[in-house]
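=== Structure Prediction Worksheet ===
Name of assembly: unnamed complex
Input type: mixed (protein and possibly other molecules)
Chain count: two
Listed entries:
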Amino acid sequence: MIQRLLVANRGEIALRIIRACREARIESVAVFSEADARAPHVGAADRAVHIGPSPAGESYLSVRKIVDAARTSGADAVHPGYGFLSENPALAGACADAKLTFIGPPADVIARMGSKIGARRLMERAGVPVVPGATPADQSDNGIVTAIERVGLPALVKASAGGGGKGMRAIRTIEEAYEAVPAARREAHSAFGDDTLYVERLIERPRHIEVQVFADAHDHVVHLFERECSVQRRHQKIVEETPAPGITPEMRARLGDAAVAAARAAGYRNAGTVEFLVDGSGDSAQFFFLEMNTRLQVEHPVTEAVVGVDLVRAQLAVAGGAPLPWTQEALSQRGHSIECRVYAEDPDEDFLPQSGRILLYREPSGTGIRVDSGVAEGSEISVHYDPLIAKLIAFAETRDAAIDRAASALTRYPILGLRTNVAFLCAILGHPAFRAGTVDTAFVEERIAELRDTKEPTDAAQAAASFWKPPAPPAAATRVERDPWATLERWGR
Amino acid sequence: MSAEFTITDIAPGELLLERDGNRVRAFVAADEHATWVFIDGRTFRFEKVRKGSKGFEKVRGGSRGLTDLSAPMPATVLRILTAPGKTVRRGETLILLEAMKMELPLRAPQDGTVTEVRCAEGQLVQPGSILVEMT
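=== Predicted Assembly ===
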């Protein structure tokens, strides 16, 4: 049994894990960098350890500092969240060496599935379909270009070690390759410290559908159905939902079986996700193994809503040695859930990340609405980390009702002080192609002009701006700055 | 603006606007540069006019982009792809910045000649600082 758990992450996922710990009567330990000294996740935990300067490489990405923090705080377990060190086998390995329970699969499984090449070979042997591709032994520009020619255009060049679209480039003409390959290599190196590139055939207009799997130490492996994640910008998901529209029951069963086979072949443990590219629709659709994410996903709440489970609680139980809390037969989908990722970014400027202080922040609430956020009014969105502000998750009986619920909640979600994608998300939810459930991964790029908010401010907005006066008089001596941290104690209790 | 709105301050940062029996709720906040307004899912940023006592000027994202030749946010200069005296074409990448683990190309806003490069590779640059000058 886990007594005290160190959360090796920040932001909304750290808060999500801390809440689960509280419910499970496990003490929580937060870690924080300089920039996060007063962040909500720090206030919410039972203990907190300062682990270094703001750059992630010197704090959240340091295996040594995370393990040291676990030791000094007396933690007996470490939850990596997603991103940062979650898929770095070095953390899982260091935890094992230090007799700390790592909430995730063993280091060798992470390493095996983290190598796109290794994972692919393993899947081929297990009978799971894969996309044609290769990792050239010759990693020079010319070597990569030769591989691109062999695999065929259009092709995708990506970081062998990576995920999340970093170091990934689509190549449609060989000329493009000479600029794209070095850029992909640089991004791969700076994001993962490993610049090995992988080349594969680009399936045009695929849908991105993934399957949640869960395995325990007692040879049980189950899947918790699919998530449709085709709405992406810059190869990163922004809207996810389950059940996936346009998936037949037969197709769903095949995806689930393939995902369980993949997890078994990997010797998997704890929560994981098997990502597939789906080509076509209906019963004739084909699917290919894309990769396995050996961690909790950002979009796990939609599965929690529709399957009626708590994935983080289950992670803690299974890591502690308990058998899975569910059998495959007991799991089913009910209703529909959609997640919208709210980012500090400017959709008008190629989704350029924004930084700055949140001047005003009010979360929507109500029936079927869940907001997992990592900020409060006054929080600083810093340049050092991912600009995710929050995830808004809607649940309802039907897909249409879930979309309506999410869209309505977004119109009650003011975040002022920096540009966000809230209006962009509203536009996606209102778009006829999204409503029809027919979007593929090219949707955002192709419909970008229809999704941007180009209309002039309404006269109500003008009137509100003209009317509004700052709460304190402008005389500097008497001016009372709003204390951004005054709201901190509301968090997590 | 046709008819006037009746505006009530209902909570901190929250206004109720009424006109012809229709009501809308607005959320408002300001920093030293701008007033931000949220209504019905849309967010507007009204730049404060520097000269003159009152009034607002509408600014949308398009006017302050990466073609400014200044850093849009704190970032690291990854690569400098141009040099003083070079003739460049509109859209050509001059500087590669890195911020939040993503590469951000800084492109030439028009055809012209680079007169000065005011940064070095590896340098951390602050928002608004001019990185390249061109004519």
